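USER: Write out one fold?

ASSISTANT:
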Amino acid sequence: MAFSTTFHPQTDDQSERVIQVLEDMLRCSVLDFLGPVAYQLELLSELDRIHDVFHVSILRRYHFDPTHIVPVEEIKVRPDLSFMEEPVQVLDHEVKVLRKKSIPLVKVLWRNHSSKEATWEPEEAMKQQYPHVF
């Protein structure tokens, strides 16, 4: 599931983070092969509201890494299968200069994500939503 805004311009940073978390949550085994292009996966009982059949184009080989293990209870999944991302800290600051304006950005480390999954966010929006991080 290596989505990027290059090929999916309708996605935003929040969608990218959701995709990353879903990738982490789908670290599981194949239960059944449903033809050449669909797999039925064995999911944890806590994920019983997620559809368990996936097209092969969104799956990729996984190489085990113990840092990827995130207990499901740490992520509070709502009944509509959404969840709230929590920023842990600001890693860096940058100013994006456009033609007629400058946009201050901050690189944010999110809970349950590695530092290489940190995202650049508008500083003003982050200060309004998460003042405790600054």
